[in-house]
Specification:
- With about 200 residues, this protein is mainly α.
- Helices cover about 60% and strands about 5% of the residues.
- It is built from 9 helices and 4 strands, in the order H-E-H-H-E-H-H-E-H-H-E-H-H.
- The protein has helices at about 25-40, 50-65, 70-85, 95-110, 110-130, 140-145, 155-160, 170-185, 195-200; strands spanning about 45-50, 90-95, 135, 170.
- It has a two-stranded antiparallel ribbon. A two-stranded antiparallel sheet has the order 3-4.
- Helix 4 (about 95-110) packs across helix 5.
- The chain is globular, with a radius of gyration of 16 Å.
Length: about 200
């Protein structure tokens, strides 16, 4: 991906909040969920398994430079996140199962789906905010994706810029909201910088 090609990509809206769901574009959602699955499938074998979880547990304390005690506390939260929101009692999950499960939950109760996705991103954002500033810095962002096996810092920096950080940071609630829009909103007319990041091949 040539970074010069994405200079005119729209950045995230800082005022967008999901208050309701439109009823129609499930294929748009499945496209976005598919992108996200590919990020979570760390070893790119077409399924999410304990191997992907274990990779992140090994990587996170290293890339963040955490002490043994800090690393253990963070890993406990990361493992809980995987088991609560992604694997949910399964030993492995294929992309098709992942997309179908999300679609079923979205179709059955959009309000509950939205609340679950908010909790999901609140949980993991609080983990990656290792310095507990309630802000996501470039380092926080880069390290979180290094934990998932992305190691091209120049590309990750360009992705971070699409969030239009103020003084090099993003308020953690805005970061959470941006990811909730990506996963839970099916209206293609709304700004969606996480979608832009994926569409431009930055993740």
């Amino acid at each position: 991906m040539q970074l010069s090609k994405i200079e005119n990509t729209a950045v995230c809206s800082k005022s967008i909040t999901i208050t309701s769901m439109s009823s129609g574009n499930i294929e748009f959602l499945r496209e976005k969920w598919s992108y996200w699955f590919d990020s979570l499938d760390v070893n790119h074998d077409g399924k999410i398994t304990k191997a992907d979880v274990d990779f992140t547990l090994k990587q996170f304390p290293v890339v963040e430079g955490l002490s043994e005690k800090e690393g253990k506390l963070a890993d406990d939260q990361i493992e809980k996140w995987w088991n609560t929101y992604i694997l949910r009692g399964k030993h492995e999950i294929s992309k098709e199962e992942f997309l179908d499960d999300f679609e079923k939950e979205y179709a059955e109760n959009k309000t509950n789906f939205l609340e679950t996705i908010k909790s999901l991103f609140e949980h993991i954002s609080n983990v990656i905010d290792t310095d507990k500033t309630k802000m996501i810095s470039l380092d926080n962002y880069v390290n979180s994706f290094k934990t998932l096996g992305h190691d091209n810092e120049k590309v990750l920096q360009k992705a971070f810029e699409l969030y239009k950080p103020s003084h090099g940071t993003i308020p953690i609630q805005e970061y959470i909201d941006d990811w909730v829009v990506f996963i839970a909103n099916d209206d293609q007319s709304k700004p969606d910088c996480v979608y832009d990041v994926y569409k431009n091949g930055l993740l």
